[in-house]
Amino acid sequence: MPTHAWHEAVIQAFKDNNVRLVVYVPDNVLRPLIEAVHADDFFTTFVATREEEAVGIICGAAMAGLRGMVLMQTSGFATLANVLASLCVAAQIPALMMVSERGTLGDFQVGQAIVCRTMRPILQTLGIEHHTMTRLDEAHFIVDRAIKQAYKTQAPVALILSPLLTAQRVSL
Amino acid sequence: MTRNTKMMNRFELTTRLVSKLKNEEAVIGGIGNSNFDLWNAGRRPQNFYMLGSMGLTAPIALGVALAQPQRRVFALEGDGSILMQLGSLATIAAVNPRNLTIIVWDNGLYQITGSQPTATAAAADVVEIARGAGISQSSWANDEEDFERLIERALHGDGPWFIAARIDGKAPAAQTPREPVSIKDAFMRGMGTKPA
Predict the structure, then answer these.
(1) Which CATH number does the domain A6-103+113-166 belong to among 3.40.228.10, 3.40.50.970, 3.20.20.150, 3.30.420.40?
(2) Which residue ranges in chain A fall short of pLDDT 70?
(3) Which of A86, A92, B96, B181 has the greatest CB tally within 10 Å of its CB?
(4) Quick one: which H or E segment has residue A74?
(5) Into which CATH architecture does domain B10-191 fall?
(6) Domain ranges of chain A
(7) Complex ipTM, two decimals?
(8) Smallest CA–CA separation between A108 and chain B, in Å?
(9) pLDDT at A172 (0 to 100)
(10) How many whole angstroms separate alpha carbon B139 and alpha carbon B142?
(11) Which residues of chain A neighbour B88 with C-beta distances below 8 Å?
(12) Which chain B residues touch A55 with a CB distance below 8 Å?
């Protein structure tokens, strides 16, 4: 069955890989995904007060056998360098992260635009696998393969949701 | 700030806690002296020793508690560390895991960095903070026997629990080896999520 919205493709990939825990710090772009995981009994989902806290929660869950994903926006990702370096990368924990990319392609917030420039350099410096998702027809493939690789290689991964994916109207 | 609680010792209390763990309970030792004294209290496969990520002991323990609801989980955290991530107490209260206990060792010091005072040395009360965050079962341990009584409650009743103990500034006898991958692998075997 074809999927008509990016969040449907993402949810299917979570289910295909038994990612049952979703911890998030809210973001308007992520809203359809957040609402969908709340509405689906497959998932345990709740809000964290900080992105760093959410990464700690899913790392504990991952070590104890429950796969978890953190949802956040770009500015939240910018708070994570220490936990990524000293927990996820150092201990080789497959922390799964999904970041809605703010501060690009027309964003009017100066702060978002500046902090956005720090995201990929942080990921590259820490050697963390990351993929930018721009197309609906690739969305499931990227999320599915990225989760599988993270678990097989015991490494964190970041999936960046571009406005090219999340802000475009889909013609049915 | 004066309190009616006895000043105790972190290693002694950690040893008392570990001696009560008969059912492969998970223990997450926070950065620095909290995990060093857990290490010194005896090796257990169910111990995770945090070598970085200051403040994330309680969140990591929450993740373990959610993954394995049949297992009791303890987080051992310092006052300086918990002050760094107070929001996590509100999250724990909201999620309300019945199998999770947060223990805070409070000596009013950033002991490992040169014993600079924390905010608990002035006016902050971590038990009142935890209660205000929504963890209603939050208590100071008055002395060693009271600490053991609170641990017994946490082992048999429905949590979440928050226990704080006023401790001295004595340094741990030895430090945990800085081997994060070995620590994680050992913990996962202790949790039954990695083959022996």
Answers:
(1) 3.40.50.970
(2) 1-3, 169-172
(3) A86
(4) helix A74-77
(5) 3-Layer(aba) Sandwich (3.40)
(6) 6-103+113-166
(7) 0.97
(8) 30
(9) 44
(10) 9
(11) 48-49, 53, 56
(12) 56, 59
